[in-house]
């Protein structure tokens, strides 16, 4: 993991800019005996803003930039001249990024759309110049507002992948093999558990030049909701998927029981995940004869299911049809 380019969790420190002070200037010109106050306002401090960028897929660009500071506003000057605003700092982040307060855990903002801007820390307002305080009884105010102070804090940025279909299953269930078979993605594939240690995205081509996005989530193990096997890091990526495709190998001891365990892990992590549409794919079905297929089919849980083989291509088009139909139902 240390050498991976995929980073979905970073902790950063941010500080917005201070507002500039208002000016206490008085107009002083030849032949103008009582020029009066003309101090300008201070400039606003810069803000720290998160901006959604669909070209980004990881938070690695923030891994080595932990301290981010916006510019301070300049002070006002004579002739009612307003000070220059401090420069904002705009941070491009992948779609699906959540910012939390590191101390309270409270969600500060979420970025889910291309070009969306969310203010992480707002800059301080500039102070008013002394000409604002001129009254009939106080013609020469010798005071002005100071600018507002900056705000600062530690924040945790988490990335939850946005995808139409999320693949859910135990390690070595064939999720990466399916993604490679249906898309141009090239995830690491090997015959051992936890081959996939980071999510992979692939675009699945459908009929009439239509397509949808599929996410290969690292394998879940029993106890994942407590963090076992880096479970909570993996499970959060499922939250942003529209459809959940459960994948269980045909050579499992009990398909129904494995489905129950997977569903239980999702429920204990976040009960709202059970509101998502669920489909079941029994993988490695090229190992089965007709009799075994019927025996397993009679024991399947009550969800739309299909027997597939990513290696031989068996029923992959049927699977895509089922996923597309579920997505249309979800969009409707």
Automatic annotation (TrEMBL):
Its EC number is 3.6.5.-. It is found in: Cytoplasm. This is GTPase Obg. The keyword Nucleotide-binding applies. An essential GTPase which binds GTP, GDP and possibly (p)ppGpp with moderate affinity, with high nucleotide exchange rates and a fairly low GTP hydrolysis rate. Plays a role in control of the cell cycle, stress response, ribosome biogenesis and in those bacteria that undergo differentiation, in morphogenesis control. Residues 4-162 form the Obg domain. Keywords: Cytoplasm, GTP-binding, Hydrolase, Magnesium, Metal-binding, Nucleotide-binding. Residues 163-328 form the OBG-type G domain. The lineage of its organism: Bacteria, Pseudomonadati, Bacteroidota, Bacteroidia, Bacteroidales. GTP binds at residues 169-176, 194-198, 216-219, 283-286, 309-311. InterPro entries: G_OBG, GTP-bd, GTP-bd_Obg/CgtA, GTP1-OBG_CS, GTP1_OBG_dom, GTP1_OBG_dom_sf, OBG_GTPase, P-loop_NTPase. Its cofactor is Mg(2+). Belongs to the TRAFAC class OBG-HflX-like GTPase superfamily. OBG GTPase family. The gene is obgE. Mg(2+) binds at residues 176, 196. Monomer. It comes from Alistipes ihumii AP11.
